[in-house]
């Protein structure tokens, strides 16, 4: 059987099935909910593990940019309507879209591996949310939030990247398509 | 799918990227610590019809006349309106504001807003953002 391969990552290219995309979307939504339940032992609001980024990065590597874009947009809207409000949708979208764009571009250069891509995605996510907060909240202390959340984004991105390194090959072996 | 090859996941470019991503915020943080700590002491800002009337240190004891209509008192790290010439006296009855109790004192008849600036707002989370 002839198999197409991603020229940058050498993963087999799979045609997405709607069922698996639905499973990934459900996973992203439930991770977003679980994450809100995990207490973070840091007094800075906004620091979190980025469990949904785990799913989005996996989708980006297993399928591609378009599928990841669909899933990340849908999960932000769904989580926003279920547990949040219009503002959490706004914050979520800004973070999700910038993070996914950065990750897709970095992946496309072919220079970086999953961990580097994921770390940059985490940083981009937090930069976008801090900028959104700066635009919406007058007097938001950007100069303190930005570096702290960037550092948190690197850490969380590296952790989810390591997890993705273990997850993505298993998804392929499991036959996700 | 045994023939599935794994590209090496972390290489020199990744490490360089991560080092840059850690170095940039660390530089920003250290710049903040070196330059900015003096600026960030909480102060009381008084606005009259949207324009800054004055900024006052929270740690002093002062009685400030705002125009001819209102009088603000700063004592024990808190600010409270002690006199207003209007009828309803809402601003006078507003609880004192300070670093631990941020908020605003508003006098609508005279267009005065008193607020704490550079305060650290402790643990009031409005909602979760994913």
Q: Layout of SSEs?
A:
The complex is a heterodimer of chains A (177) and B (130).
Chain A: H1 18-37, H2 51-62, H3 65-83, H4 86-109, H5 114-136, H6 142-174
Helix pairs in contact in A: 1-2, 1-3, 2-3, 2-5, 2-6, 3-4, 4-5, 5-6
Chain B: H1 12-35, E1 43-48, E2 51-57, E3 62-66, E4 70-75, E5 78-84, H2 90-93, E6 97-98, E7 104-107, E8 112-117
Antiparallel strand pairs in B: 1-2, 1-8, 3-4, 4-5, 5-6, 7-8
Summarize the structure.
Chain A is mainly α and 177 residues long. Helices cover 74% and strands 0% of the residues of chain A.
Structure description:
The complex is a heterodimer of chains A (177) and B (130). Chain A is built from 6 helices and no strands. By secondary structure, chain A is mostly helical. Chain A has one domain (18-174): Arp2/3 complex 21 kDa subunit ARPC3, CATH 1.10.1760.20. In chain A, α2 runs antiparallel to α3 and α3 packs antiparallel against α4 (86-109). The mean pLDDT of chain A is 86. Chain B is 22% helix and 33% strand. Chain B has 2 helices and 8 strands, in the order αβββββαβββ. Chain B has helices at 12-35, 90-93, and strands at 43-48, 51-57, 62-66, 70-75, 78-84, 97-98, 104-107, 112-117. In chain B, strands 2-1-8-7 form a 4-stranded antiparallel beta sheet. In chain B, strands 3-4-5-6 form a 4-stranded antiparallel beta sheet. Chain B starts with 11 loop residues before the first helix and ends in a 13-residue tail after the last strand. Chain A binds chain B through residues 9-12, 32, 35-36, 43, 45-46, 52, 75-76, 79-80, 83-85, 87-88, 91-92, 95, 106, 111-116, 119-120, 123, 129, 139, 141, 143-144, 146-148, 150-151, 153-154, 158, 165, 169, 172-173, 175, and chain B through 1, 4-11, 13-15, 17-18, 21-22, 24-26, 28-29, 32, 36, 117-118, 123, 125, 127-130.
């Amino acid at each position: 059987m002839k198999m197409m391969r991603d020229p940058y990552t050498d993963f087999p290219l799979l045609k997405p099935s709607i069922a698996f995309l639905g499973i990934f979307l459900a996973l992203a939504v439930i991770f977003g909910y679980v994450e809100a339940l995990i207490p973070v032992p840091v007094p800075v609001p906004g620091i979190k593990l980025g469990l949904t980024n785990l799913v989005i990065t996996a989708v980006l590597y297993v399928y591609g940019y378009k599928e990841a874009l669909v899933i990340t947009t849908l999960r932000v809207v769904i989580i926003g309507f279920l547990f949040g409000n219009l503002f959490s949708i706004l914050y979520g979208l800004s973070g999700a879209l910038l993070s996914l764009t950065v990750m897709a571009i970095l992946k496309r250069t072919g220079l970086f591996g999953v961990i580097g891509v994921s770390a940059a995605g985490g940083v981009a996510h937090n930069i976008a949310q801090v900028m959104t907060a700066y635009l919406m909240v007058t007097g938001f202390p950007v100069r303190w939030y930005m570096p702290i959340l960037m550092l948190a984004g690197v850490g969380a991105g590296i952790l989810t990247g390591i997890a993705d390194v273990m997850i993505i090959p298993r998804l392929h072996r499991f036959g996700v398509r | 799918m045994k023939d599935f090859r794994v590209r090496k996941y972390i290489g020199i470019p990744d490490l360089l990227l991560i080092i840059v991503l850690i170095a940039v915020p660390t530089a920003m943080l250290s710049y903040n610590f070196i330059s900015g700590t003096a600026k960030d002491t909480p102060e009381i800002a008084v606005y009259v019809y949207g324009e800054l009337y004055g900024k006052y240190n929270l740690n002093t004891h002062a009685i400030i006349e705002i125009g001819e209509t209102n009088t603000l008192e700063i004592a024990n790290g808190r600010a409270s309106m002690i006199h207003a010439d209007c009828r309803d006296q809402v601003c006078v009855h507003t609880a004192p504001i300070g670093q631990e109790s941020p908020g605003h004192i508003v006098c609508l008849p005279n267009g005065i807003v008193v607020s704490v600036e550079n305060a650290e707002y402790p643990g009031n989370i409005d909602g979760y953002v994913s």
